[in-house]
Amino acid sequence: MAITIELLKNYPQHISRLVQIGHEELGPTWAPKEEQLRQQLQSDLLSKTFVALDEGTPVGMCSLSKTKDIRHDLTPWLGPLFVAKQYQGRGIGSQLIEAVKQKARMLGFEKLHLCTHDFELAAGYYQRRCWKVIGVDEWKGYLVTVMKIKLLKTQG
Prior knowledge:
This protein has 156 residues and is of the alpha+beta class. The protein has four helices and eight strands. The chain has helices at 15-26, 34-41, 92-106, 119-126, and strands at 3-7, 48-54, 57-65, 77-78, 82-83, 111-116, 132-139, 142-150. Strands 1, 2, 3, 4 and 5 form a five-stranded antiparallel beta sheet that branches. A three-stranded antiparallel beta sheet has the order 6-8-7. Strand 2 and strand 3 (57-65) form a beta hairpin.
């Protein structure tokens, strides 16, 4: 297994497969829509999506975006993050998060935010990775946990 993390804009042929994996792992409410990912390819805005590839096969993704339809006072945002079931538990999610954090740091941001509808996930996965809960909001008709992390300056 040779996982690489790349910008999705260089691999647009994998968008449909990533949307499918997103539906399998997150469900239709939370998975990215194909139109959203294709629009992002046309933009030079803050939004960037990273794809995890196993020898050229897409196995997960994570995005950096300026806003979400929630907490307009906060920017930027991480998500959605997902990894295909058979690849989970191998650190790929952490690699994707780190790629997004690195890009946010390069753009001059000091904090990064996310929201998750799964409080157990927030309390476990993200808090173990130093994310802090900053509130609970309603999004898409569901309660979501809003979290943030401080982005430490890279050495060098």
